[in-house]
Fold these 2 entries.
Entry 1:
Amino acid sequence: MADAIVAEGLVKKYGGVTALDGMELSVPEGTVLGLLGPNGAGKTTTVRILTTLLEPDAGRATVAGYDVVREAAELRAHIGACGQYAAVDDHLTGAENLEMIGRLYHLGAARSRRRARELLDRFDLTDAADRPAQGYSGGMRRRLDLAGALVADPPVLFLDEPTTGLDPRARIGLWDVVAELVDRGTTVLLTTQYLEEADRLADSIAVVDHGRVIARGTADELKDQVGGDRIQLSLTDTASLESAARTLAPLAVGEMRIDAAALRVTVPVTGGAAALTRALGHLAAERITVNDAGLRRPTLDEVFLSLTGHRPDTKIEESVR
């Protein structure tokens, strides 16, 4: 399978700030790569370079076989992009926004009009098609923006935090559209801070920090890097929480996580169900009452915290990245 997106050694600096420091990426055709990282890690700068909006200071990249610098004009006809903020014209109606994009892609008036109506229907915007976009809600604007990225039915699609600001129903609807596009062969590069989104959509995930990829693999492969199972316990009160943490410390094979507000302790262990049985036995011997107990695998949130030292919504510096 050929790679639809390739980035090799991308470097981008803004004054004394290094936004990208040797970024390396490859995305096979017809797959989704999830790009995860804290704010300021270099995700958006990467997308801007790959969509020809910025030129790298060093390195090279190709998208759909076109060099992003030398063949930028040709490349633009083969990509779609949806950024963090909805790029719609408030003074045009939803239909007019999409028809205008179609004309810019040289689809012609009739085809642009037909394509606009198809997309308005797909994104549940038909009832608002003839209303000015300035009256749209935030979620409607996001859906219109994504529809605009699909007008030319591009083989490669860049989604830079596309579900920011959407309610859960709208987010799931967008996930369904992305899955449908990939089933038809579209290649997607998705940046997101919603780990559930990456877990659900991405065939492969690249974790980015300080302008470079620090880990790459499927969601399961990344979880395996953190290792082991997790015993998660909910306790009845603060005293029980503290006692449980002390009692289970000898079983932990890594750092325990204690959530005092939720009265919950998470213990990394080896041995699966046998470890859970031992833990419950120790707690019973100490007469510690447990509200709920379970065994689970690491989450992507824990993977992220382990790899970067902070959570995905953490801003690592005031960023121009």
Entry 2:
Amino acid sequence: MSIISVSNLSKQYRIGARAPYKTLRETLMNAIALPARMFRRNSSEENNTIWALKNVSFDVKEGEVVGVRRKPT
């Protein structure tokens, strides 16, 4: 019997400097433009991300201990 069941767990981190604070006007304009930006892919943004976990699935049974280790590249 599994106490914990996880399927297709993924976690991605964006690497780099944080964006500076924006004005209310900039935030609203970005929100309005968001649907159009979702259809475009920014390759530079993809290059600034790293997958910590990707499609990980596991079950933990009572009394088991689980750890996560990075796969060597």
